[in-house]
Amino acid sequence: EAVPKAYVPILEKHKNDSFTQAQKDWQLIRRGRYVEFNLVYDRGTVFGLKMLPSGVGRVESILMSLPETAQWRYDHKPEPGTPEHDILEVFKNPRDWV
Questions:
Q1: What is the C-alpha separation between 14 and 6, in angstroms, rounded?
Q2: How far apart (Å, rounded) are the C-alpha atoms in residues 47 and 43?
Q3: Is 15 helix (H, G, I), strand (E, B) or coil?
Q4: Residue 81 Rama label (left phi>0; alpha psi -120 to 50; beta)
Q5: Residues near 33 by Cβ (< 8 Å), separated by ≥ 6?
Q6: To 5 degrees, how large is the angle CA 86–CA 91–CA 95?
Q7: What tens digit of pLDDT does each residue of 44-68 get?
Q8: Longest Cα–Cα distance in the chain
Q9: Positive or negative, the Cα torsion across 10, 32, 88, 22?
């Protein structure tokens, strides 16, 4: 109940926002990193992949949780001063909020 109350107004506010091709490319690159994390590091996904030879794991169940579109770019580094660069710096240097 609390999530829709908080999330729907954000969607309504931004549903018609325009975006550039560079922003779309960034979104796809981040999706690619999500896929990478899931297939390489996520314990549940890795467990499912390891179970495939035994007949217990299902490829479809694993892959259907991944985004439909994504991009991979080797050693991608956003231009300094861009929002994409700034958010990566936050990811790499998290703030201690406590």
A1: 13
A2: 6
A3: coil
A4: left
A5: none
A6: 95
A7: 888 888 888 888 878 888 888 889 9
A8: 49
A9: negative
Task: Write the pLDDT tens digit of every residue in 19-30.
Answer: 999 999 999 999
Give the per-residue SS3 of 18-78: CCCHHHHHHHHHHHHHHHHHHHHCCHHHHHHHHCHHHCCCCHHHHHCCCCCCCCCCCCCCC
**In a 3-state reduction of DSSP, which class is residue 6?**
helix
Residue 73 φ/ψ, nearest 5 degrees: -130, 130
Query: Global pTM?
Result: 0.76
Whole-angstrom distance, CA of residue 59 vs CA of residue 52 = 7
Size of the chain, expressed as the number of residues it contains = 98
Q: What is the DSSP letter of 79?
A: P
- The vertex-72 CA angle with 69 and 76, nearest 5°, equals 135
